[in-house]
Amino acid sequence: MLSLKEREDLAYVQILGLSAPVDGLLRWECRTPVDLVVEKPAQELPLLYKYSPLLSDRAVRVSVPLAPGFGKVVKLAIALDFAVKLEGTQPAPSLADELLGVASDYLYRPSVSVPVEFVHSLFLAFYRQEPVSLWSVQEEDPRQVRYITDAGEETIGKRFLNLAPSSDLDEFLPAYRAELIAEGRECRECAFVDSCSGYFKWPARDYRCDTIKTLFQMLVEAASELRNDLAACPPTQTGAT
Amino acid sequence: MKPPFSLILLPTLRCNADCEYCFETRTEDRLSLNRLAIVLQKVIDHMQERQLDTLSIYWQGGEVMTQSPEWFERAHELVQEMATARETRIVHYLQTNLIGYGPKWNPVIAEMFDNSLGTSMDFPNLYRRVKGGTPQQYQELWERKVLAARDAGIKIGVIAIPNAGTVAAGAEAFYSYFVERLGIMDFQVNTPFPGGSSNAVKGTYPLSTDGDGCSQFLLDLADIWEKRGRNAGVRIGPFDKLLAYFEQGTKDVLCIWRENCANEFVCIDPRGHVAQCDCWVSSYPEYRFGNLLDPVSLADLLRTSDAHREFASRPGRLMQTEECLDCNYLAICHGGCPVRAYSVHGSLLRKDPYCDLYRKIFARMEEMSAARCRVKAGSGQC
Predict the structure, then answer these.
(1) Structure pTM?
(2) Beta-carbon separation of A57 and B1 below 8 A
(3) How many Cβ atoms are within 10 Å of A129's Cβ, its own excluded?
(4) CA B321 to CA B128: how far, in whole Å?
(5) Residue B285 to residues A173, B279, B307: CA-CA distances in angstroms?
(6) Superfamily in which the B5-306 domain is placed by CATH
(7) Distance between CA atoms of residues A116 and B279, nearest Å
(8) Does B260 touch chain A (CB under 8 A)?
């Protein structure tokens, strides 16, 4: 049992898979945010509904892998007002339309009022013309966050569970990026390497980033469009003196 | 903040009217104060287990005014005592046909219901009637009661059910009757469904939503309200709440469009039967969750009820079987009303039969919101 102080220090609690009963969570006095980790998008889709009452007293995020059916989970999660995190896997080419569709919904559908990470943070950074690290957005920068395995070992995230990097975790990101460049991977010529740093090159370094680059370009263009629209809008009259 | 828990409480299944499209099965049952205490105790137990601190009680019937105002006064005292003892906030709402209304009701309406009530009337009135009377007689009686209640300072909201005559008469005549003739500033239009035992009137439901049907009537009504009523303080459900959603993102929509009604309310009748809402509890015994007068808690009753499980899982299952996930308005509909689906299709696992009509209304309200936004932007208020 965690003490009150320990509970206050919790960033969030992960629920792995959605099939467990939700009654206990509904009675949980602690307002700690919850991260609902979807493991099988197609099967777990309808179970999202039973978690929606949690939103009345805590933040709830749905984390979903880029696996077949993830777009439907994202759409329903958005409709239920859950924040969304797209888990960092390497999406198959067959999922390109689904991924770009999710980004398009986030950017252009007026009813979307929740963040869809990593799309959200990238878009904001591009809009503000600020640097951004996809590893950090995805809570996989080991200088900021560590993942503890069931065996008690520290690693970077779930996708590193059986593929632990050989280098020191603090050094992993700069070293990995340097290796990708040195190996002549497409990162070397990529316009988005400063934001991405090879995030989608793990675990398969020869993964083709065509869809990812299209997505990044879409976000850059939308951010530019928004900046221009706002610049063209006449200043509001707030009445403030 | 957690939302209130809502209880649709039917203190009686008696009714002094004989409306042809009623979906309830009437009986002579009345709720005793002893049973009211048992029911409330268990509802509050359930709320406290889920850390909910506000209970909204929607008093409906049957017809509530076939109970006496004295009964309501005693019921109110009892409820207030329990609310104080259990540190629970309880808010009351009244839905009545007003036929039994008279000045003797004024104190309890003021004290218990914050001097406001909801009632029902259609235009034209084809199906509401007192026993042995005509729709015309009913309408005249109802209008007199409305005027008397308003003279007593009571705020009145009206629910109207469109029928074929409504569609034929058109939105202008409908709006004029309620707003300009009767001075009703707050009303809601609900879609009819063939709940309960079948008859010739219910055989015409659901109303056609094609062409010049019910959809066009509602779209025309929305336009009239936007031009003449909205800025004058007239509220028409569902238009007002939908505009608030499209303009401000608030999701205070009708129960038929909430994400899962099984999470938000239950209905209890005078015999202690618990079900999802009034049509289910009175007309579909196979879908009752159980009886709260039995030695069982409300939490256990809900947890172990197959019927409740079926309701709770309905929206999620619709996402797999219907095309709701492809709809732009999923966030404010979730497949619609279970009783409309069941009464038309015989299955909970079908979407609401008025899906097409709802989508047209949603789209019109979205357009209306966007048009207002463009006007604001043009005047430098963006």
Answers:
(1) 0.93
(2) yes
(3) 9
(4) 37
(5) 63, 10, 10
(6) Aldolase class I (3.20.20.70)
(7) 40
(8) yes
**What are the domain boundaries of chain A?**
1-117, 132-218
Considering CB atoms only, which of B1, B313, B330 is closest to A56?
A: B1
Inform me whether the pLDDT recorded for A110 exceeds 90.
no
Per-residue pLDDT band at A241 (split at 50, 70, 90): very low
Contacts of A56 in chain B (CB under 8 A): 1-3
In this structure, which amino acid lies at residue B155? K
- CA proximity to A185, closest of A163, A168, A170, A205: A205
* pLDDT at residue A167 tops 50: yes
Query: B376 touching A, CB under 8 A?
Result: no
pLDDT tens figures, A182-221: 999 999 999 999 999 999 999 999 999 999 999 999 999 9
Cβ–Cβ < 8 Å for A170, A176: no
What average pLDDT score do residues A24-36 get? 88
Q: What is the mean pLDDT of residues B76-89?
A: 98
Answer whether B331 sits within 8 Å of A80, measured CB to CB.
yes
Count CA within 13 A, CB hemisphere, residue B189: 26
| pLDDT value at residue B380 | 60
pLDDT in tens, A204-214: 999 999 999 99
Residue ranges of A 195-234 with Cβ closer than 8 A to chain B: 233-234
Q: Dump pLDDT digits (tens) for B16-75.
A: 999 999 999 999 999 999 999 999 999 999 999 988 999 999 999 999 999 999 999 999
Range with the lowest mean pLDDT among A60-64, A163-167, B84-88, B257-261? Answer: A163-167
Which CATH number applies to A1-117?
A: 3.40.50
Chain B closest CA to A221's CA: distance in Å? 22
Contact call for B316 and A46, based on CB within 8 A: yes
Mean pLDDT, range B86-90, rounded to an integer: 97
HEC profile of B93-138? EEECCCCCCCHHHHHHHHHHHCCEEEEECCCCCCCCCECCCCHHHH
CB contact under 8 A, A27 and B260: no
Nearest neighbour of A75 by CB, restricted to B1, B2, B330? B330
**Of A87, A38, A81, A44, nearest in space to A59 by CA:** A81
Please report, in angstroms and rounded to a whole number, the separation of the first and last CA atoms in chain B: 30
pLDDT digits (tens, 9 = 90+) for B331-344: 999 999 999 999 99
Interface test with B, best of A38, A111, A236 (most B CBs within 10 A): A111
Between β-strands A154-155 and A147-148, what pairing exists: parallel, antiparallel or unpaired?
antiparallel
* B297 token code pair: 């808690």
Q: Which residue has the higher pLDDT, B213 or B311?
A: B311
Number of H helices, E strands in chain A: 11, 7
Closest CA to B353 of B341, B343, B338, B362: B341
Mean pLDDT of B92-103: 98
- How many residues are present in chain A? 241
Longest Cα–Cα distance of chain B, Å, equals 64
Instruction: Identify all chain B residues contacting A236, using CB atoms and an 8 Å cutoff.
Output: 380-382
Question: Which residue has 């879609």 as its token pair?
Answer: B191
**Number of Cβ pairs < 8 A linking chain A and chain B:** 69
